[in-house]
Design goal:
Radius of gyration: 23 Å
Oligomer: single chain
Structural class: mainly alpha
CATH superfamily: Rhodopsin 7-helix transmembrane proteins
Number of helices: 10
Keywords: Membrane, Transmembrane, Transmembrane helix
Protein name: THH1/TOM1/TOM3 domain-containing protein
Strand content: under 5%
CATH architecture: Up-down Bundle
Largest sheet: 2 strands, antiparallel
Strand order of the largest sheet: 1-2
Organism: Heterostelium pallidum (strain ATCC 26659 / Pp 5 / PN500)
Shape: elongated
Order of helices and strands: EEHHHHHHHHHH
Length: 341
């Protein structure tokens, strides 16, 4: 493609215009190909690993972890397809932009579903009036925010809002996700500490401890990754590259934060085999914790059943203590070379 006088043709990622001022220098074709190749390998590797885990967990398709893995796998698929379009140097911006934004939407949905399951875990072991009133509201609020995230992307593509708005939308959900994992992760850890004294020994206690430890690690990683993505989303709206070297660094940093964020569950949540551990018939809170943490189910009726069963058992026990509880720019402006995360 021939560039107008005073402009340079360079196709790296459609978040930047294909025509940039000649002050940027010479287009780093090799650097652009390296960026496209590395991102494709990483996204496709996470997609392949997601498929492997979905196959291993296929008998547990009703669990929150399975649904979360499904969303993450689909998100990595959309990013992989988008990268193929970059190799083909597709200049039509709506297709790559839609894949990019909805891929981000599925990333956030995957983590928000985990928070929904954590709300049910808390409800099944905490019978305080405050918890029983607050966490159902929190649960439905998370579901509502998940839906609104996709509504936001539909509006973005329909009206083609500024890339600053896109980055702000990504950053707001990144910050909200970090708060959700920080708060609910801490609450689960606190609840576990309050009930662990009931059955401090045995297989159930040890399994539950490992699960809670994994939840704590996942929470810490997601909080750090989400805050990093939030900072980069805000910063990339105001710190724009002045040359092609800066453009490549900008692309690697912004895409790298999404890869770090999306890899959280792949790192900390190991898939369970077909021989999934079954909960024992022990009728104490440690058993309930073990069963719930193994399944990570988010169905409200399941949570209510578990809660009612646990309450009945605790009433039947003599002197049993009650425990209280990012953007598109895609507004491709050939004259300005505007960009988005």
């Amino acid at each position: 493609m021939i560039a107008p006088e005073g402009w340079v043709y360079c196709y790296c990622d459609p978040v930047f215009s294909v025509f940039l001022p000649d002050s940027f220098g010479t287009c780093p074709v090799g650097g652009c190909r390296a960026f496209q190749s590395i991102t494709f390998i990483l996204f496709f590797a996470m997609f392949a690993e997601g498929c492997r885990r979905l196959w291993i967990q296929r008998e547990h398709y009703k669990t929150a972890i399975y649904i979360s893995n499904s969303l993450l796998t689909f998100a990595n698929l959309t990013q992989s397809i988008r990268t193929i379009l970059l190799f083909a140097e597709v200049v039509e911006i709506y297709g790559p932009t839609t894949l990019f934004l909805f891929g981000i939407g599925f990333y956030f949905s995957a983590y928000l579903w985990i928070l929904v399951s954590w709300c049910d875990i808390i409800l099944s072991v905490n019978f305080s009036k405050t918890a029983q009133k607050v966490f159902p509201i929190v649960r439905w609020a998370i579901i509502f925010l998940t839906i609104m995230h996709f509504v936001g992307w539909i509006i973005a593509i329909k009206i083609w809002w500024p890339y600053q708005a896109t980055n702000a939308w990504i950053a707001s959900y990144g910050f909200g996700t970090s708060l959700g994992f920080l708060f609910l992760g801490f609450f689960i850890w606190r609840e576990y500490k309050s009930v662990s004294s009931i059955a401090a020994h045995g297989d159930n206690a040890e399994k539950t401890y490992r699960k809670v430890k994994k939840v704590t690690r996942l929470s810490a990683y997601v909080v750090a990754a989400a805050l990093l993505m939030t900072a980069v989303s805000f910063g990339s709206s105001y710190i724009m590259p002045k040359n092609f070297s800066g453009m490549l660094a900008w692309l690697f940093i912004t895409r790298g934060t999404f890869i770090i964020f999306s890899s959280s569950t792949l790192i900390f949540l190991i898939p369970q085999s077909k021989k999934m551990n079954q909960s024992t018939s022990s009728s104490n809170k440690s058993s309930q914790w073990s069963d719930k943490m193994n399944k990570m189910e988010f169905h409200s009726n399941d949570a209510s059943a578990a809660a009612n069963h646990d309450l009945e058992e605790s009433v039947g026990q003599t002197q049993q203590p009650t425990n209280k509880i990012v953007g598109i720019s895609a507004n491709q402006d050939n004259n300005t070379g505007s960009s988005q995360v």
